[in-house]
Delta-9 acyl-phospholipid desaturase (Myxococcus fulvus), 342 residues
Amino acid sequence: MSNALDVDGLEGDGREGKARRLAIESPFLRRMQRRHFFLFNVGPLLGTLAAVGWAFVRPIGALELGLFGVMWLITGLGVSAGYHRFFTHRSFKAPTPVRVALAIMGSMAALGPVISWAAMHRRHHRLADRPGDMHSPNLHGADFGGRVRGLVHAHFTWMLQHEYPNIVHYVPDLLEDRAIVRASRHYQTWVVLGLLVPTAIGALVTRTWEGALAGFLWGGVVRMFVVAQSISALNSILHTLGSRPFQLKDNSRNNPLLGMLIWGEGWHHNHHAFPRSASFALAWYRVDLSYWFIRLLEKLGLATNVIVPTPEQKEARRARAAIKDSNAHLQRNEATHGSQGS
């Protein structure tokens, strides 16, 4: 089995023999990645198609909508508030029971073990929209065909084969948390739990096999499919379309509609401007379900040290963006005048 160095090569302290691989590729990892893709991406897609077909036999009712909504909220908050804001960016502190609960909630979304997910996302921030960013839509050409290929890659196909980040390098803090290491090792157990819970509730409420199947489909596989597509939209849509108030080096974007629909994650450009902020919306009047959830945990004494940027920090970021805009405008004017003069 051969391992390939990532585009950054080696990193170390400058002394021979102390270098560290930042990411690897291998036939074994590619097999694991493809298996995960077909089980937890293609599988839910097929299950969703089956659920839509079955809806013509058993119309969608309160049970289906209720189980879908509750499981969507639980697993979505597990990914957004847990996997993303807590485990990856350390936007707040939490006691062990809350940390484990967040890891389980996020794992039920079937997006990967928490340690792997956090490592990949930290690597994404380090290399956003540059070579080595495993799911950037902006590295496949600037023409129409390249844009389409980039969107498809960022939304789907990157999961079939990608470099795996060195977890010792990217998430040493998580590896020191024994409770989270144990939770991460049982990832597939939590995925199955996310399917069994709505199935059991559907069976208990209706006392029929049809109710159990409705719970499995709508609270399980359909919910899993919708959550996965929502998170994939961060990679594809929110690095392509939307506003950029802070003018960062990467191509991250804000989208208010997705901010409302996917737990506040649609304020993605804000997040790239202030990665450690628990609030992505950065304003009270913008919808950010995960931030509201974190504040609820804080009120209950289950979260502390919630990080948000101060007004001065936000204004400083805006000022830098304004300076960049002004410089770019001057450069365009100089180029225009220069071409006219020649």
